[in-house]
Structure formats: C-alpha cells, structure tokens
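Q: Hi! First time doing this. I have a protein sequence and I read that you can turn it into a structure. Is that right? Here it is:
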Amino acid sequence: MGSRVTTAGKPRKTSPPKRSRIGDLRMRDVYRGSAVLAAAAVAAAAVWLVLPSGPGEGERPVAAPSAAPTSSGAPSPAPTDTRQPTDTRQPVGVAQPAGSAQPVARPTPSPGTTLAPGYTAMEAFYADKRLPPLPGKLKKVTRADPGEKVLSDKRTGLAVPRPGGTWKVHRPAPFTSKQVLPKVRGQAARGLLVSCPLPIEAQKHPRDTALLAARWTLNHHPEGSTVRWVAAQPVKGGWALVYQVKYGKRSSLAAVVVIDGGMSKPGLVFASVPDTQRKRWRDIYRVVSGARVLG
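A: Yes, that's right. Below is the predicted 3D structure, encoded as structure tokens:
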C-alpha cells in the first residue's frame, strides 16, 4: 500500500481567499473622490472668507442705529449685520451702542425753500415766503390802556378786552368770541377781534407758537398777503406779536397773543384792523396790553 508523506510539526500553508480586484478599485475610487471633494469645499470656503465681496472691500454693511430716543427700559441689542441697510436715508456704518446716537441738526430753511416730506411746523414757517424771519432785535409792544370791560371766554380761560367805541360783539362762530368794526362802503375788510383755542400745534417755546399763530391768521387776510414784523414781547403766560399785513396797495395792522389759560390748549387772541379804519389801530395795542387769564 502506498503511504502519505507528511512533514511532521510543519503546518501546511493555505492561500487566502481571492478578492475581486474590480471591487477593490471601485471602493478606492470612492474614498479618494470623497477626500478630493471635501478638500475642495474647505478651500472654497477659505477663499470666500478672504476675498472682497464687492464695493465694501470685503466688509459686510451694518445697519446704522436709529436717532430716535430710546425708552427707559433695558437698551436693545445692537443690530446684526445685513447685506443691505434697513433705512437707505441713514449712512451705512458700524452700529453704535444704544442711546449714543444724537439727532442730526438740520439747517433752517430760507423763505421759498421746497421742503422734503417729514418737515416740521417751524420748518414750514421758515420756508413760507409770505413771512420773513423774526429779527433778533425788535421793539416791544407799545403799552395802551385796555379799559375795564372784557369778554370772558371760558373755553380759552382768557379775558378779552372790549375796546368800545364802534366795536360791536358779533356771533362768534367759528370762534369762541368775536367783535367787529362796522363795514366800510366799498371795502370787504373790516376790523376783527376774536379769541379761540389755539388752532395750531403748540411748540416748546411760546414765541414759536405765536409765530405759527400769526402764519395761521393769513387765512383771514386777502390772498397773496405778506407780513412785516412790527413788535414782539413775552406776556404773562405766553407771547405777543404785532405785525403789518400787506395785500396789494392796502394793508392791515394785526396782532396775536398766545396765553396759557389753564385749558387743554393755550388760548389765542387775534385782532386785525385795515388801513381804511386806521383810526382804530390804537385798539390793536389795547388788545395786546389787556389780554390775560381770567381771574
């Protein structure tokens, strides 16, 4: 019988199972492709962070804070950076801490200026070519005896002088008190003395309120009227202005007195006398001297 020849103590070497070379190549390609894509993504991100993105030389614009005053509570956080400012009227820059922004002073308009939307009442006054700026130095109102008789206007809280003579009390509407002079034949204008709650918005300074009131009275003068200031002075509780109103070849002497009579709005006393009744111009000064808070 034949016998098997074996080598004692030496194990036979066996070959490892064969693997598919096609499979090996495909997996290696996948791994390498993933690594290449990841590296490309990292490089692209680095380039995007370094290179400028437009006219800002790489800086990303930040919306400027509003100039409006903040509330008494905790300050709001600084705005986050955005690609475009939220208000194109404000300059683009770095946000400032809350409460540090200050209102930008705007120049005083000159008569005849065209105003942009959002103008204030005083800007409208200074831009009105019918009224010149109030001179820095203007004479005080001439004192005159107002007499003892008054009209009590309880809606304004004011005592309105009654000049007497040919002045007559008239139906007040749309005012709260009204006195008039007789009509002059052939003339539409006649003397007028009225009172009412302030028909315009009161300003911080009573002088500015009086200026706006004088502008408002042009609604009761002929179209195209212009103003020349005559006198101005503070009065107890308010301010008074005397001015000449010119319209064509004619004119009127007028006055406004704005006084806080303790009501929800200040009271206005307005008087105007045309040059056809110039003998009553002294009554303008009686009105200014005698208008006061009801006692």
